[in-house]
DNA sequence: GCCAACGTTGGC
DNA sequence: GCCAACGTTGGC
């Protein structure tokens, strides 16, 4: 039996890379993740076809703004090998890569962005890592129930293709 | 292995 | 711009 697809949330500062940018590019390499917990989720659990909530962070009104799709298996993050790159890691080598990426593709923009402020007062999303105090993870798992709820809040039918 | 200092994230 | 909450680093 095929693996059940999973749902995730990724954060991005829109000044650095926004959902608009993802739609413009059509596909992007999700590079620069330098946190072990986030890395482990990507490396060990993210697979092609998984759904991804795309969240804009570090702005006046942080919000989930769209849905993306994991478009590749995890593979070594090339920026870790590039001296001079902001994400260069001198302790990583081609033989022993430390960091991974996946490719992401845009799926649907949410007709109504779902603000963090909105989620924080919603008992339906209790347990969602995003609304836990002090959470700084940039890649986190989202339950199917929470994923579907966020889509509905954003004005999408979770059962529509 | 402890823990203080430091750096980063990200909401506000 | 502030600062709380973390994660990492490095001296010991």
In DSSP terms (H or I, runs of 4 or more residues), the helix count works out at 4
Q: In the CATH scheme, what's the topology name?
A: ph1033 like fold
Largest sheet entry: 6 strands, mixed
Rounded radius of gyration (Å):
16 Å
Instruction: Flag low-confidence runs.
Output: none
Secondary structure class reads alpha+beta
Please, what is the CATH homologous superfamily?
A: ph1033 like domains
Spatial order of the strands in the main sheet?
2-7-4-3-1-8
- When the domains are counted, the total is 1
Provide mean pLDDT, rounded: 94
How many angstroms separate the termini? 22 Å
Q: What's the shape?
A: globular
CATH-level-2 architecture: Roll
The first-level CATH class name: Alpha Beta
Tell me about this structure.
The protein has helices spanning 19-25, 36-45, 116-120, 144-153; strands at residues 7-12, 28-29, 51-56, 63-70, 75-76, 100-101, 103-115, 139-142. By secondary structure, it is α+β, with helices and mostly antiparallel strands. The strands form two sheets. The chain has a six-stranded mixed beta sheet. It has a two-stranded antiparallel ribbon with strand order 5-6. The protein is globular and about 45 Å long. The relative contact order is 0.22. The model has no long low-confidence stretch (mean pLDDT 94). The structure holds a DNA duplex (12 and 12 nucleotides).
